[in-house]
């Protein structure tokens, strides 16, 4: 292992309403390695998602291990998707250093 990893784990939590747009962006950017969890309940800055009549909607969660220099273009692309909607959908990036072993 090195002292400063050149890769990071990107955790992307996104409203399922824009999940297909995000997946298309990943494909267009040539990002084809990921793990995706669908039907995720939770609460965040844009409200609660429980998938029921009281708290409608759900989230998706993506895990991507990426080279650090490729992260900002992904963030920018996803934020452009988010900003294209009249009501801002939930989207959160969490990035942590990752060492491949």
The tally of domains stands at 1
Please tally the helical runs, counting DSSP H or I stretches of 4 or more residues: 2
Level of helix content? 10-25%
Computed CA radius of gyration, to the nearest angstrom: 14 Å
CATH topology: Alpha-Beta Plaits
What would CATH call the architecture? 2-Layer Sandwich
The residue-averaged pLDDT reads 94
Order of SSEs: EHEEEEHE
Q: Total strand count, please?
A: 6
CATH class label: Alpha Beta
- Measure the end-to-end span: 8 Å
Low-confidence region ranges: none
Q: Strand percentage, roughly?
A: 35-45%
Oligomer: single chain
Strand sequence of the main sheet, in spatial order?
2-5-1-6
Form type: globular
Largest sheet at a glance? 4 strands, antiparallel
What does this structure look like?
This protein is α+β, with helices and mostly antiparallel strands. It has a single domain, classed as 2-Layer Sandwich (Alpha-Beta Plaits). The chain is built from two helices and six strands. It has helices spanning 19-28, 71-83, and strands at 7-15, 35-40, 42-44, 47-49, 59-67, 91-98. The protein has a four-stranded antiparallel sheet with strand order 2-5-1-6, with helices on one face. Strands 3-4 form a two-stranded antiparallel sheet. Strand 3 (42-44) and strand 4 (47-49) form a beta hairpin. Helix 1 (19-28) runs antiparallel to helix 2. The longest helix is centred in the C-terminal third of the chain and has 13 residues, at 71-83. The radius of gyration is 14 Å and the shape is globular. The model has no long low-confidence stretch (mean pLDDT 94).
């Amino acid at each position: 292992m090195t002292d400063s990893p050149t890769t990071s784990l990107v955790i992307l939590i996104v409203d399922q309403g824009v999940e297909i747009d995000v997946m298309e962006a990943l494909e267009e950017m040539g990002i084809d390695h990921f793990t995706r969890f669908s039907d995720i309940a939770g609460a965040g800055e844009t409200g609660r998602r429980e998938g029921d009549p009281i708290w409608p909607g759900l989230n998706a969660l993506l895990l991507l291990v990426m080279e650090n220099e490729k992260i900002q273009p992904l963030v920018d692309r996803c934020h452009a998707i988010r900003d294209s909607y009249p009501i801002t959908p939930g989207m959160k990036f969490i990035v942590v250093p990752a060492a491949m072993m």
